[in-house]
Amino acid sequence: MQEDPFVVAARVSPTNVGFLLNARQVACAFGYLSVPEFAEQTARTFATMRRMQHYRGHLLNWYDTRTLQPLPPLFVSSVDSGNLAASLWTLQQGCEALLNQPIVGPQMAEGFLDHLRTLDDFGAFARRLLSKLEQRSLTDDWVRMLLKFPEAALDRIATNADPQHSTDIKWFAKSAKTRLHELRRAIARFTPWMLPDFADLRKDAALALPGTNVALKDLPDALTKLEARLQKAIDADSEKNKDHSALLDRLLSLVSGARMDCVNLIQELQALAADAERNVAEMDFSFLWSPRRKLLSIGFESEKKTKSRRTRGSCWRARIPLIAVGLYCFPGLARCLNI
Fold first, then answer.
1. How far apart are CA 194 and CA 223, in angstroms?
2. How many domains, in total, are found in the chain?
3. Are residues 111 and 90 part of one domain?
4. Cβ neighbours around 36 below 10 Å, total
5. Rounded Cα distance, 322 and 317, in Å
6. Any alpha helices (H) in 149-218, and if so which ranges?
7. Which of 152, 204, 251, 281 is the most buried if burial means most Cβ atoms within 10 Å?
């Protein structure tokens, strides 16, 4: 956003790109994006970054978002590149951390409820009902609560929106509906035993259906073992209870597909982490360094092949992202520095 005049500016900097990548991580942690959405959108951003002109591994200072062409002067900014490097390292660790977390977690309920809280602020959602949903979200029943939530209620909210806040109400109602769709999609693709259709099977101790706390990296193995248990149950039950066997067959089919989807998602996150690390490794800071002054230049104009002589006034801005990365990667450093 450009403040003066107030418009959407059709330009983007390396710092903006880094903040976009990290903002998606936060959205995922808050339940505003599912892990598959995060992975897909981040991969698209990396694909766009590869189409943008670079200089010695650095993105240039500004690009036109409509054409992806760099805006003159073609300048490599130490500050912007430092910010982007910090964001990429944070993204790398975030992608790796997602592998150690369940793909469907309570944050998805909290993200959905945040939309309802905003609708409540606009007077478009009943506070009493919101309180009940908030209480249930803190129990083990939160998945069932979301899966049973009537989408038609959100459609009615959008249709009957107060004209004074109509645009905002419709946006939050539509976004809340999207959160429900993405939750149901994630469960069907990766943890299908959590679907309401298989509630009776969850009571069967012999099947030992997994819980909701299986880490993504462990899901393929858990699904392989579940396939074997389901097949064994089908073989033993096929002549006794055809309805029960049909339910087992249906879950087995979903579990088989879920295992492949899990493997693909794990590989996508690992590839994103590797892309983030590679993008930083390709940034050559040596031509920005002043050995005599032991400072980074504020930047380099690539067309003129000239390095900015400004260092002293801005050197700390250029160092701050690198210090932040150091503190993030080495928590003990903060204690040593007493900060």
1. 13
2. 3
3. no
4. 19
5. 10
6. 151-159, 166-190
7. 251
